[in-house]
């Protein structure tokens, strides 16, 4: 089981259903949905539908996509098996695929994150879902196995988050790979597994890494972090930013977003970097580039965004002043080395003071404030993270330029159209793509510097090519 | 003769030397320099040396490079023939190459732009220069021809700005190409020529396009434009930016820099774009994306940065309000269509009111203010443009990361070093390169979407590989 | 009963104490506090103490003040009777006054806002408190009456929020006014009452309006709003600001703060103003100044900060597009005219969708999103508002410059000291005040343009003069 | 003679008129102007007229004022004698006064700053001017004396810059004070003189200090400095701001403007302050507040804006690193203590390297770059300073709100009008004034903390009251 299948353990606590029986053992019946599904409680469908509708109002790009397709079914023929968090936001994506003609079956990538009511609404809408909140490990794999297909329905595309579904198919139903047009993977873990396959010469289908897409890099990382870092901090700490001294570790897109937001609100921001190009950008953008050890005694907050590990060490924590806040906006929770801190628990006290807020207390009374257990402080509610991932999944199926164009009506933005003359002068088509290939290929490289062997490219005129 | 060899015609006017004889006809003698050179007046060398020293103080990255090399000669063996503007800034570059062990011969790429005193100082320092201000066309080619080499000295690298030198060698001394390690070209014109050769399969050596380097794209375009657009406008117009409505056409790096600077000073900025990704970035950065025709009646200024042609048309000029300012920060002067405006000169009056400022006057008295004859308003003085180009030439020879690291001491920026453990976790070397190849390859693509067939890559551990 | 005594009705709902008896009817006994008090439950004191300690960590200026006073008792002799919200933050203020030598008695200005545990902790610390959550109106006045004093203890200063305490004393114990050194009032309502007294010639003691202090105007309004508007919006709406079109009505300090924050996060901000000076500032700061009716069809959000009424009218709501957000950052909830909207409820539907979020739905399905029932969206939690008011109360007692100097250590800011020579050159004392009187007198003017007849001034060398 | 009458000595050098005779000795004849004047050369009038027209295009508020007055002559009856710099910008002001009905006579406040062609154009337009570039001291006073009036024309208002005219009238024609409606003074020196008179009880007429007007404080100081500091630095130094470490001494309006602009362009800005309120504002705005001595070794630039003296001392200069730039944006040139630096000239070398740029060179080769001889670096050309002063003079005659409203059309800004209901609610008139008196009285206080005894207030409905 991959990490993503267990990492929301805490969130299950808020689920207070009394029904202790496993959905596997119950009769699954829907008045008008598929006969082939397994969820907690079909009677919650109406509530789930409202949640999906509310989510849809906040995901206008997908709604625009449905409109733009009109009655046409550009995805007719696509058979998608998916394994992701099952939330209202994912449901908007799934139903968009269906609206465009795809057939979908879905399982959960995480035993705790399924919104049962949303699953019920999807089933009622005719989609075979196998998922409920609080699956056991055995149930988790049972759901995935049943989701993969039936004798009469075999998938030609995988949407995966964590790699469990792909791995299951690879191992148990390798023959399905013959029909696959591609695999889309969101998580770093999953991408790493695909890369191992690819390196071993056993990845016979195109695969895409959502995480490194242009849209993800340039929009989600930069703009989303810019907007969410302030909220994440405010919600957990009540800090006022004006005049506070903050170190941001790492000046990639996430770091750039954090720095811009904090500076805009009046914080004094320092940057640490290992890469001279990023360091120079930080300088030019007006940030002092220093080593953490040089400034650590004076700061009010440190935010890690490097993607690396052990960026903040126990020795740094020892030097921080009372009340210093430590949090992480990077991918992994390993950026802050808590192992050494935990180990010496006889020396330090660890107090959970509020949801998402812990204090580590030194013998002299000094308190360091840890936010979100140094997991990503991306947002205060999981919903928004889900929504974000969902946006990324879109990217896999459509070209970045097409996705961007879907968002423009939200901003009432009016694109200028090239004249024939101008297009010829620029050596490009009037309707794009406007970026050269090398720019768009950024999409598909793996993080940690590796590249998948199989890369697909798309163009605006046929954004649906991947599935067709 | 390429465009760059004539485009500074005006600047010659300030040269008031009385000596009308051609340097070709004079005895060229230097007490301690080479015997092989041709310049205007060796006696100006001391004055030129001061100019070079002053320029050096403002180019700390090159000075750092000399220091960092210590006594070593990493460029020993390199024989560079160059053809660029000959200014104090270029001289700092040339002498850095020499300090690192290279041998250099140099000619001017422009008949008017040579600073005679600087040429004299270079000669006195032992470099064979063939250039003076006010060359005739015949003299221009004579200088290039004499610069190429001698029987005992043949170049193994070309640094060209405009392509005239490369073309001359290609046609007259094709055998030299066998020894060439590479061609570095700065101008769009020159790159286009190389591309034609490459397409025809006749470019047998590696060639690089400085103009699309990462450093150029990410630093010069973005940051330089951000800093210089305000100055360019202030120096020509006395406008106050606060509250002024400005349209920036194009949201590439140049446009992003202009928009950021203008917004920071309180202007209300609108953006026009053809590319949905750039348009979406403009939205997220807080700019209204509109078509020029929608807003043209209300604006105080329009700045073109598209790289395309005919972005501002006569019909737009007709609709602008009295006093509207029109200028160009893009590569070419074709962004604003003045042809149709000029043609109807019986209808419109054209008045040159100040250096770099023209008024076009409509019959009803309306005046449109054209800056810099709609050439690039990059900076008010040519020196800075030269300096900029010079910085770019560096990029061709060293890796971007190496160049960036040379700049960091200027900002007293302290780079963090990866631990062995962290480097391993990231899958990269402790000392870089930190960016994947696809990122750095952006360097070498041609503008207008074409790609050179021959591309070199470098790494920090051997930044001098190109020449060795 | 003033408005402030009832306006938190909703907040009582979260109080789930089972004990239904009135504290008035119970024996009030504290092991070591005063014998003279009336609260809900003394046994909650330890929990309340923890709350006060946590609040104290976030109010460093008051903590600095205690330290700076050292063991001295500059407020010895001061007898303060207070009537405010009783929260952990207020408790930090009260205990600071006590630490500096003052004697205090306190009642609640609101029948619902008392934190019972905090009241218990204050009593245990020796302060006579008469307050509990959920007082009846009769109990409210009973508490105030018992708080005023005893035969042996008579106040010489009033700290009031809403004017109920002052009014009660004025009517029932007018003889106490002889001993009063001053009245400090926070609320607009209370200030208005004082003004009426003053105009009628019946206000015989100095009075101060906290609300118009320099610190309040320049720090709380500007900086606090700048930081809190984003959070308030994020917490209620999940909106991303980048590219959103927002109208801010009013460009006073609150409006300036909102505009700066929204612009910094990438929103496109328009301003409406009635005052040409503020309008011109908005222009210079880069905001289009328009009338609401001109832009209302296109915007994503409108925020009112005028202090005026009926700024957003039903006719504006009718024209807004689906999903437009309407909220208020100004003092009063009358900025948005909901009366006419409510009245026609047969036509419009009103749906409460989340805490602090209502939808008004038009027959065609259009939804307008109202936040916080158009009360002030200052912050998502009441605590921060309390804290803010508490900070303001400080201002009444100490000079603005002294208060500012207390905050500087928080920012590790190092003040430069004038030399004797420089002080003489500037014509001021070395240790301030640095601002001329006219600047500081801004403190004491009433809002709505009236001025109190009795105004006090302070200086840094004796910040405690008011109470002594 | 006041300081302003000699402080532009350098500027006379650019005047290369051959005519050495004094205008006093020549026949002064104008075909259609007044008979009563004395200038250099009436034949330059046409050229001067063009200069005035160009200046007028950049001073739209005054042009709007002329339009708004329509054919009416609100200033009929006003007889203004003025003594200011005589430039194209001043001419626009003078001719506006005339257009509104005033009669004017004018002299120069500086022996070198008169633009002879402009003076000629004014004479041709019917205004009695007594001024030329390069007056001797004797001629200076002769001009003022002849300007004051004639037997049939006596002034009822003085517009002065430096106090020389007021002083002359006070001493030689004290009886004129009986008819005076007021004195408007721009310079600190002149205001100080008035204050001495006022303190001695001998100032019998209202007087106004332009320098402390709301418009000057809030617009000119803040916004003008924000825009001009960047240009001033760019024009003299070619510095790029990104990443540069800058200390701004003083965080008043000028300092705030400088800090905002530099931060916006990517500089890292530190602030020094003596006043805790301003220091706290700097903190909240995101600037580190330090003492100059703490950071002086590391900075790239220091800018003084305190209004105080000896802010940068020799000991600071000694510690600065090579190439550090020192300049002044404050009122006086005494902010940087050059006396001690000059005195030890045997030790330090002083080299004038470019207009407005000097280098001070230490024995070890370290160079400190002094800009504008540490006079105000407000703008690179004097014209803009003149324009600025001119804008301020307007303020004296009209209310700030009226002046602001004249500027709004420039920004196409649309003011919202209060409804009757709203005006009543706010307790103000529908058409203003919108600010309480205490706000507007800021106008008239003296700098250095003194207050004039005679203060006038205006209102929008009768902006011309002062002169009528």
TrEMBL record, chains A, B, C, D:
Molecular function GO labels: adenosylhomocysteinase activity
Annotated cofactor note: Binds 1 NAD(+) per subunit.
Stored PROSITE patterns: ADOHCYASE_1 (PS00738), ADOHCYASE_2 (PS00739)
Domain S-adenosyl-L-homocysteine hydrolase NAD binding, first and last residues per copy: 221-381
Binding site for NAD(+): 252-257, 273
Keyword set includes Cell cycle: no
Pathway(s): Amino-acid biosynthesis; L-homocysteine biosynthesis; L-homocysteine from S-adenosyl-L-homocysteine: step 1/1
Family: Belongs to the adenosylhomocysteinase family.
Protein name in UniProt: adenosylhomocysteinase
């Amino acid at each position: 089981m991959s990490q993503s299948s267990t990492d929301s353990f805490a969130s299950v606590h808020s689920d207070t259903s009394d029904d202790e029986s496993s959905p596997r053992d119950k009769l699954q019946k829907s008045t008008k949905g598929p006969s082939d599904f397994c969820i907690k409680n079909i009677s919650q469908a109406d509530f789930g539908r409202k949640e999906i509708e509310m989510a849809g109002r906040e995901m206008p790009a997908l709604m625009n996509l449905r409109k733009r397709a009109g009655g046409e079914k550009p995805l007719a023929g696509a058979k998608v098996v998916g394994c992701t968090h099952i939330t209202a936001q994912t449901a908007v994506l799934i139903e968009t695929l269906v609206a465009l003609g795809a057939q979908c079956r879905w399982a959960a990538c995480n035993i705790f994150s399924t919104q049962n009511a949303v699953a019920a609404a999807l089933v009622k809408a005719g989609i075979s879902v196998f998922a409920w909140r609080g699956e056991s490990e055995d149930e988790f794999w049972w759901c995935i196995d049943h989701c993969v297909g039936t004798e009469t329905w075999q998938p030609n595309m995988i949407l995966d988050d964590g790699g469990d579904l792909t791995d299951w198919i690879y191992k148990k139903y390798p023959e399905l790979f013959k029909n696959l047009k591609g695999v889309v993977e969101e998580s770093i873990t999953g991408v790493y597994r695909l890369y191992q396959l690819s390196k071993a010469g056993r990845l016979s289908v195109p695969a895409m890494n959502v995480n490194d897409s242009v849209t993800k890099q340039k929009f989600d990382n930069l703009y989303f972090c810019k907007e969410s870092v302030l909220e994440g901090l405010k919600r957990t700490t009540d800090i006022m930013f004006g005049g506070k001294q903050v170190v941001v570790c790492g000046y990639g897109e996430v770091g750039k977003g954090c720095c811009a937001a904090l500076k805009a609100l009046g914080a004094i921001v320092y940057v640490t970097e290992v890469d001279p190009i990023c360091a120079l950008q930080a300088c030019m953008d007006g940030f002092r580039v220093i080593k953490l050890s040089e400034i650590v005694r004076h700061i009010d907050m440190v935010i890690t965004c490097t993607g690396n590990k052990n960026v903040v060490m126990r020795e740094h924590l020892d030097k921080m002043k009372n009340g210093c806040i430590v949090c992480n906006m990077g991918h992994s929770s390993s950026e802050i080395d808590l192992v050494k801190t935990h180990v010496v628990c006889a020396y330090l006290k660890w107090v959970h003071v509020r949801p998402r807020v812990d204090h580590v207390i030194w013998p002299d009374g000094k308190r360091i404030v840890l936010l979100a257990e140094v997991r990503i402080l991306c947002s205060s509610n999981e919903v928004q993270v889900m929504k974000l991932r969902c946006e990324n999944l879109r990217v896999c199926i459509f070209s970045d330029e097409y996705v961007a164009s879907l968002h423009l009506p939200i901003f009432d933005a009016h694109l200028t159209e090239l004249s024939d003359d101008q297009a010829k002068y620029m050596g490009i088509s009037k309707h794009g793509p406007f970026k050269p290939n090398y720019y768009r290929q950024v999409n598909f490289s793996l993080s940690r510097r590796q590249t998948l062997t199989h890369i697909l490219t798309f163009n605006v005129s046929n954004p649906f090519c991947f599935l067709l």
